[in-house]
Design brief:
4-stranded parallel sheet; alpha/beta; 11 helices; about 260 residues
């Protein structure tokens, strides 16, 4: 009996020594393990940056804020961003026209699947447009409307005040159906040595500034209005730009829509 008790006490001592040693080793391991910082924990769950999205958004640095937000939303939802070029026949037609050149550059920079462009041009005044031909445009005005508001066609036909009222009507109709659509205004092409037409364009520019509407003043890239070289940038009947004029107009808009560091 005495021998059994001695054996039992010895076994208990061995157990205590082993348990104590294991506990000590665990304590040492805990004290030497590196602590996880909050930043490190955050990095484990944070999504990595999307370099392609960052690239695209940097290209749109000049765009109106609402258009940038819409572009980012379209990127996230894998939809195309739509631009409508709206105005008179002075926008021009053909493979060398600035709308065609602009579309090619935008789709090359942003991607064909992301950038959708269409051109709607009408041989009429602003009054004729708002009274007769808005239906097709209003069906799908687009995320961004680059609008030349018939200023040249209105010259001598529709007063500048009435022309601006028609402009407001177009924007109000679009906003009532597509509140997220954004307008950017621009003038038609300049003409050589005219008197009243530049004054109408100046009123359009002033209206844009007073109402905080983006205005792309591509006239600054053309020759001076009284410089005879301007004739080289216009079609023979002044109805639209020549190939040179289309290139100047296109380059100005490309520099705006595709920001380069």
């Amino acid at each position: 009996m005495k021998a059994f008790i001695t054996f039992l006490l010895a076994a208990c001592c061995v157990f205590i020594l082993i348990a104590g040693n294991l506990h000590w080793q665990d304590k040492i391991a805990d004290s030497t393990a590196p602590e996880s910082s909050p930043a490190a924990e955050k990095s484990k769950v944070a999504d990595p940056a999307d370099p392609e999205k960052e690239r695209i958004m940097s290209l749109a640095a000049n765009w109106p804020e609402n258009s940038r937000k819409q572009l980012e939303k379209d990127l996230d939802e894998q939809r195309a961003f739509s631009i409508t070029i709206l105005g008179s026949k002075s926008l021009g037609e053909g493979s060398d026209s600035w709308p065609v050149l602009l579309k090619a550059e935008l789709q090359s920079a942003y991607g064909k699947d992301l950038m959708e462009l269409r051109t709607l041009s009408y041989d009429m005044t602003s009054s004729q447009f708002v009274n007769q031909n808005m239906e097709d445009f209003l069906k799908n005005p687009g995320d961004l409307i680059l609008f030349e508001p018939f200023t040249l066609n209105d010259n001598g036909e529709v007063g500048s005040k009435a022309g601006l009222e028609n402009l407001v009507l177009v924007m109000e109709e679009v906003k009532s159906k597509n509140p997220d659509s954004t307008f950017i205004l621009q003038p038609p092409h300049p003409l050589y040595d005219t008197i009243y037409y530049p004054k109408d364009v100046e009123k359009l520019k002033e209206y844009s500034k007073e109402n905080s509407i983006p205005y792309l003043d591509h006239w600054t890239a053309w020759p001076e209005l009284d410089d005879p070289v301007m004739k080289e940038f216009l079609a023979f009947d002044n109805s639209q730009p020549s190939e040179k004029g289309h290139r100047v107009w296109a380059d100005f808009l490309i520099d705006y829509f595709i920001h380069k560091e």
